[in-house]
């Protein structure tokens, strides 16, 4: 099934201030652009200043206005995280935080080194926890806000060899529920999206050729997702349309986790290149780890 064009209601975030982590590529970059087109003032953060600047320029061009600021920060450094929070609130109260930054490593459980585990947990769980905490404190004081965490289908089922990544993203879902439960009555909503296989730069060429053919039959829609589709889900959860959605994981996986084939012979034949989204075909289809 070809990917439809993602249409957004015009300027539904006009006057809102949004912070997006991991904003220099993939789902983060698409989210920065989508919020800018929707009228928001966006602060995009990441570790690569040059890529952030490129994303900001592209987003501003798409929005037809200068709506994106950038701030380089390594969120595993608490001092830089604190500086980011100060910058995010420097022009007024923040309305939306999107915790998107993340890393992964393909190592079997028995072989994961302590350093690798710590790096993944620090980036994917500790940093989002601390940033959400610092941000939520201010949101509560200013009357409320929305936090959207980017988890993964790997938070719900095991995928090998990504044990450390799975553990970190499962933690993000637990964090999401905790924030929603504790802060809902204080005006702060918190939800998560769980992307499936998505075109992003995170995994490189891991899904190419025979491996792609083996993976696509697991997705009922028969194609990989687009970063823009994940961004649209994030905007929905951040919007007033989701005002009664709190503590929820939103699966964006093309139906991958809805079931399984009793035998591989029952699965549909994988689509050939060009069938999923011709405009994006020159890119490498990659696993949807945000």
Written description of the protein model:
With 290 residues, the chain is of the alpha/beta class. It has a single domain (17-280), classed as 3-Layer(aba) Sandwich (Rossmann fold), CATH 3.40.50.720. 37% of the residues lie in helices and 13% in strands. It has seven helices and seven strands. The chain has helices spanning 26-37, 49-63, 78-88, 114-142, 163-183, 210-215, 227-238, and strands at residues 17-20, 41-46, 68-72, 96-99, 145-150, 188-195, 249-252. It has a seven-stranded parallel β-sheet, sandwiched between helices. Strand 2, helix 2 and strand 3 (68-72) form a beta-alpha-beta unit. Helix 1 (26-37) packs parallel to helix 2 and helix 4 packs parallel to helix 5 (163-183). It is globular, with a radius of gyration of 18 Å.
Give the class from helix and strand content and strand pairing.
Answer: alpha/beta
Task: Indicate the mean pLDDT.
Answer: 88
Estimate the helix proportion, in percent.
25-40%
Q: What is the topology, as strand order, of the major beta sheet? A: 3-2-1-4-5-6-7
Number of domains: 1
In DSSP terms, counting alpha (H) and pi (I) runs of 4 or more, how many helices? Answer: 7
Q: How would a textbook summarize the main sheet?
A: 7 strands, parallel
CATH class placement = Alpha Beta
